[in-house]
Amino acid sequence: MKLTCHSEVGALRSTYIKRAEDAFVDDATVSLEWKALNFLGKPDLDKSLIQYKGFENLLKTIGNEIHYFSNDSSVSMDSIYCRDASIATNAGVILCTMGKPARVNEPVACKKVFERSGVKILGSIIGPGTLEGGDVAWLDENTLAVGHTYRTNEEGIRQLQVLLSPLNVNVIPVPLPHYKGSSDVFHLMSILSPVDHDLAVVYSPLMPIVFRNDLKKRGYSFVEVPQSEFDSMGCNVLAIAPRICVMVEGNPLTKKALEDAGCTVYEYQGSEISVKGGGGPTCLTRPILRLV
């Protein structure tokens, strides 16, 4: 067993999160920002705080050490989805450049917290390159899949390849479809959530055939998310350990399919903190270290 940053499925040992109270701040902030940020509806602040506490408690069930991104007036409500601003590697954190203009200040805000905590910074994605952490998923210790989306462009992927080349990491670009357009939240991890070294939750209708076949060649089997549970974030599943998962409440078919595949599934109420903002449990976390 060893500690690594290069995993989506090992037992969580160190994770950064941003509490709802520090991202949403107050009702005035929520009222001002939610429409411009393309939330599906205005989050209820009181419910958000309760839901987030339930989610945070789940993350503590396996001895995971929690660290917190602090309130920062330079960023928006979207900063609750703290995965997107950085990528963790064994040589340090890579700071992203956000593809969503309203989120451009988040990597700098995260950098301040990382530096105060003594977390090493490996490098940054520099404009015109863009890259968001929701487009990035480790398939194994030396393989990183990266979605080519409206949020992550070709130049951002090129810079990531340069930064990871000395670590012998193979970066696999995954071109994703237009789907609902540039204003929608559509990342690679909208259609892919590894939950074990050989098991992934997927939404196949939006998955490139070449990539899907590559996953099968790598030994992955799939938990297929039905169309009826895609918009309710059935495909956004966080592994807190191999086949131990956290998902948004309200996706019973996907939950049963996970359990049939031998997974233990924990649910949290996410109507306010996840569904309305388009960010599930993977989006709400920036894992650093996992035990594999």
Account of the 3D structure:
This protein is an alpha/beta fold. Helix content is 25%, strand content 26%. It has helices at 20-23, 27-33, 45-59, 106-117, 154-164, 209-217, 252-260, 271-275, and strands at 3-4, 11-17, 65-68, 86-89, 92-95, 121-124, 136-140, 143-148, 170-175, 192-196, 199-202, 221-224, 238-241, 244-248, 264-268, 285-291. It has a four-stranded mixed beta sheet with strand order 1-16-2-3, with no helix packed on it. It is globular, with a radius of gyration of 17 Å. 48% of the residues are buried.
Q: How many distinct beta strands?
A: 16
Main sheet overview: 4 strands, mixed
Question: Quaternary status of these chains?
Answer: single chain
Shape: globular
Question: Which stretches of 5+ consecutive residues score pLDDT under 50?
Answer: none
Query: Could you estimate the helical fraction of the residues in percent?
Result: 10-25%
Task: Compose a concise summary of this entry.
This protein is an alpha/beta fold and 292 residues long. The chain contains eight helices and 16 strands.
Question: Key features?
Answer:
292 residues; alpha/beta; 8 helices
Outline the secondary-structure elements.
Blueprint: E1 3-4, E2 11-17, H1 20-23, H2 27-33, H3 45-59, E3 65-68, E4 86-89, E5 92-95, H4 106-117, E6 121-124, E7 136-140, E8 143-148, H5 154-164, E9 170-175, E10 192-196, E11 199-202, H6 209-217, E12 221-224, E13 238-241, E14 244-248, H7 252-260, E15 264-268, H8 271-275, E16 285-291
Parallel strand pairs: 2-3, 5-6, 8-9, 11-12, 14-15
Antiparallel strand pairs: 1-16, 2-16, 4-5, 7-8, 10-11, 13-14
